[in-house]
Each structure stands twice: as structure tokens, then as C-alpha cells.
Write a structure and sequence with these properties.
- This protein is α+β, with helices and mostly antiparallel strands.
- The chain has 2 domains: 99 residues, membrane protein fhac (Ubiquitin-like (UB roll)), CATH 3.10.20.310; 44 residues.
- Helices cover 50% and strands 13% of the residues.
- The chain has 4 helices and 3 strands.
- It has a 3-stranded mixed β-sheet, with helices on one face.
- The chain is elongated.
- The protein starts with a helix and ends in a 6-residue tail after the last helix.
Length: 148
């Protein structure tokens, strides 16, 4: 009985230490390493981490996804190469962020740009052609000389 009472007192004494909610972590400085052609502003725009905001795991995952979707950086899962966003350990509540990227070679980026421009121009020409066709049909149907 004495041991049970001692155990209850021990558990009651230590529960507040176990039950404390974790401290909030905040974003400190954001460091970008590995970009030579891509401007820092482009990378910072894709990464939703602003110094001073609450640091959440979802934001880190979204930042990595956004960097991959930029198509400016090397992604090779076999070699383990991809843009990474790492939270650096810190004794304070502010944690610095390290963004590590490896840019694609310039020839590959130029090729991607040419393909994107060609696709965009093709879609634009197709839209113009369709608009011209619709405009021609509409003006002919409204013309007083059109045969009905």
C-alpha cells in the first residue's frame, strides 16, 4: 500500500513535465546554397518560409515540392540529388533554414525553354486561328449579302 501511494505521488509529481506542450519553433535566417544562374528572389518566392513565422513541417515539404516544380534544378532520385530544405539545429526557438540546390546545365535549361516557348506559340496560334474562324462565320451570318 505504501508503495502504491509513493508511486501515485511520483506520477502526480512528474506528469506536468511530461504533459507540457512543445515549444513553438520559428524560422530564423534562410540560406540558399548552390544556385549560380537562378536568382535568390526566384527561389525565395517558391519557398513559403519567411523569417519570424512559425516553422511547420508542411511548409518545408511544400518548399521542396515548389523547388522541384521550378524545373531549374537537378532531380535524380537514383543519385539522391534533389533540392532540399533543411532545418538547422539551434538552442533558441529560431531555427535557420538551409536550401541546397544543384542547378541543371545551361544547355538543358535552354532546351526546356525552347520547348516551352514552342508549345506556348503553338497554343497561341491555334487560339488565334479558332478566333479568326469564328469571327469569319459570325460576320458572314450577319452580312446582308449572305445567302440564307
Amino acid at each position: 500500500m505504501r508503495y502504491a501511494l509513493a508511486w501515485i505521488l511520483f506520477v502526480a509529481w512528474t506528469i506536468p513535465a511530461w504533459a507540457q506542450p512543445p515549444k513553438n519553433r520559428f524560422v530564423g535566417e534562410v540560406f540558399i546554397v548552390g544556385n549560380t544562374a537562378t536568382r535568390d528572389a526566384v527561389i525565395r518566392q517558391a519557398v513559403p518560409l519567411i523569417p519570424g513565422q512559425v516553422l511547420r513541417e508542411e511548409d518545408i515539404q511544400k518548399a521542396e515540392k515548389n523547388l522541384i516544380e521550378l524545373d531549374c534544378f537537378a532531380v535524380d532520385l537514383d543519385r539522391g540529388v534533389r533540392p532540399t530544405v533543411t532545418v538547422l539545429d539551434s538552442p533558441s526557438e529560431f531555427h535557420d533554414i538551409l536550401i541546397l540546390v544543384e542547378e541543371l546545365p545551361l544547355e538543358v535549361r535552354r532546351r526546356q525553354l525552347v520547348i516551352q516557348v514552342a508549345i506556348g506559340l503553338g497554343a497561341g496560334i491555334a487560339c488565334l486561328g479558332a478566333a479568326w474562324f469564328i469571327l469569319q462565320r459570325w460576320t458572314r451570318s450577319r452580312s446582308p449579302w449572305a445567302s440564307r
